[in-house]
Specification:
heterodimer, A: alpha/beta, 3-stranded antiparallel sheet, 12 strands, globular, B: alpha/beta, 4 helices, 13 strands
Chain lengths: ~230, ~220
């Protein structure tokens, strides 16, 4: 019997090795898998490469992971925020490598990885600093930049409901990066509000089919927000 | 001559957005345009994080942490609105499905180059978000900015000195002094604030401007 439910976030993340590449879902607090990030901090793996839209806010979540000096490199579109002080400090100290990626290119590179695409040409960033050193091509009447997929060892995402096969539904804009990250990672770990019996999710509303999901942890809503 | 304030600028942009448009409003000043869209005109607002059909701000206490815009502010969804993932959201942008992107700017050049993401300073931490995708992807890119910097220098320039967000991507510039179209043969002034002489706008701008026959 397939059963992707794990008893705890700790158990679901126990095998993450040093130097792993980890995608973390969420855009702001919407869809941020706070309990999984807390468990990753407790788990202890170092030298991580993190893929997220941002680079942490205030003192919890990804910011706390950076403050604990566990992150070697970040791929993101928007690191600088009013409360990104842990990233700012590590970046200025040269302790953290930043690969800045336009947001749509970030999303498409993640999508490409999950879809088995080897590379793609995008018009975004052509003629800018972020295309320097990259292959370009004129196709028709437009100029494009060659971009490669981003693969990950793990994806940590949040969804609303899951069954034991790992089929997922989301809530509102909390969906954001989760479906594409789930497909791009070898091992996708999902924090959900509710687990349901197989067959309880309407097949028409399943957004991420369980083929993209390896582990599911139910987290009580009171624990969803980072401490 | 009286400069437009931020809300007057937003109202001026809103006036030009027709019924049925799909529109992305950038973070900051452009977000104000939502408050000035003419009532009764159906205009569908998009946000990069994966939503079409954004409604008004929720009442205090009604916020939902799972329903936010790209500025990470709480929003509501109109009847008919939809959610989708990030790759689809940027497919809408890059795939030329959005009618308008309204963006802020540090500088716009006479050729329509846009600089709005990075000062390029040695100590500046770069952050780009969706700016480059919107600049290259929207059918029309509308810029909303003060005409002059705090030091009184024109933000409309011969060549951008800040790093580019996109080359030759701007269609129209709305400032607190004027509305200016970017065309292959240069900048055309379509509108000016009351009491501003074309010659004064020309002097403040520091780049060649043309006056449309229809300009107010």
């Amino acid at each position: 019997m397939i059963d992707k439910f794990f008893a705890s976030a700790e158990a679901a993340l126990a095998d993450i090795p040093e130097g792993a590449t980890i995608m973390i879902g969420g855009f702001g607090n919407a869809g941020m898998p706070a309990a999984l990030i807390d468990a990753l901090i407790a788990q202890g793996a170092r030298g991580l490469t993190i893929v997220n839209n941002n680079a942490g806010n205030a003192d919890s979540g990804l910011a706390a992971l950076i403050a604990a000096r566990r992150v070697r490199k970040i791929l993101c579109s928007f690191p600088r925020q009013a409360d990104s002080w842990h990233f700012d400090k590590a970046y200025r100290a040269g302790e953290l490598e930043l690969e800045l990626v336009p947001q749509g290119t970030l999303a498409e590179r993640i999508r490409a990885a999950g879809a088995g695409i080897g590379a793609f040409f995008t018009p975004t960033a052509h003629g800018t600093l972020l295309a320097e050193g990259k292959e370009t091509r004129r196709i028709g009447d437009r100029d494009y930049v060659l971009e490669y997929p981003i693969h990950a060892d793990y994806a940590l995402i949040r969804a609303d409901r899951a069954d034991r096969w790992g089929n997922l539904t989301y809530r509102k804009t909390a969906r954001n990066f989760a479906p594409i990250m789930a497909a791009a990672a070898k091992c996708t770990v999902v924090q959900v509000r509710e687990t349901v019996a197989l067959g309880a999710l309407d097949p028409e509303v399943i957004v991420t089919p369980g083929i993209f999901v390896q582990r599911v942890v139910k987290i009580a809503p009171s624990l969803r927000k980072a401490a | 001559m009286k400069k437009l304030d931020r809300n007057q600028m937003a109202a001026r942009v809103a006036r030009d957005i027709p019924e049925g448009s799909y529109v992305n409003l950038g973070i900051g000043l452009p977000t104000l345009v939502a408050d000035h869209l003419p009532k009764g005109r159906e205009i569908i607002l998009h946000s990069e994080n994966g939503v079409l059909g954004i409604g008004p701000r929720p009442a205090s206490g009604e916020e939902d942490e799972d329903l936010i815009n790209a500025g990470k502010e709480p929003v509501t969804l109109l009847p008919g609105g939809a959610y989708f993932h990030h790759a689809d959201s940027f497919g809408m942008i890059r795939g030329r499905h959005l009618d308008f992107a309204v963006l802020g700017a540090f500088q716009v050049s006479v050729a329509g180059d846009l600089a709005n993401w990075h000062t390029g300073g040695p100590d500046a931490i770069p952050a780009v978000g969706g700016a480059m995708d919107l600049a290259m992807g929207a059918k029309k890119v509308l810029i909303m900015m003060e005409h002059l910097t705090k030091k009184g220098e024109s933000k409309i320039v011969e060549r951008c000195t800040y790093p580019l967000t996109g080359a030759r991507c701007v269609n129209r510039i709305y400032t607190d002094l004027a509305v200016i179209d970017v065309k292959p043969d240069g900048l055309h002034v379509v509108d000016m604030v009351d009491g501003l002489a074309f010659e004064d706008l020309q002097r403040l701008s520091g780049v060649p401007l043309r006056r449309l026959a229809t300009a107010a």
